[in-house]
Amino acid sequence: MSFWSIKMDYELGNIRPKLDRHKLGLGLVKTGLKESLHKFIKNVICEDEKLTIVFSHNMAKFEFEQSKEQFLESARAYYKTHAKEFLHLNFVPKRIESKVDYEKDEPSKYDPFAIPTPLNPPTKKATPEFLNRATNPAVHAGFERIREIIKNRQGG
Q1: In order of start, what are the domains of the chain with their CATH numbers?
Q2: Tell me: the pLDDT tens digits for 70-110?
């Protein structure tokens, strides 16, 4: 046994059987599932007697549940061809389950509250130099009073 394999066993535990188990489980799942569902496989959890398929979308799980009998037929055929490897790793999946793990949406890169928006400088809204086009004398007089109020507020 080389130094590096001893170091790997010491640091990570014996990871090789776990990787082999995962590889066999993923092969079993991909053999049984339709090819259109392969892109929705997020993970495969391989326990001693249970295989859990983690999908990234609930429609993939639904489609898997609908065609589970066909999946099991293909999975049995794959298991028979790789039976020695499954038994060597003490991995005999008797129960196959599925679940959905939704990806968390990444936070938006634009956060409006991260940097406060500077206030715009106040702009002049009204000046006494407007054109009074009112034809009704009462309305015309009202606008002239408004003109006087604006002049008084501006100090002019």
Answers
A1: 3-100 (3.30.300), 125-156 (no CATH)
A2: 999 998 999 999 989 988 888 888 899 999 987 665 555 66
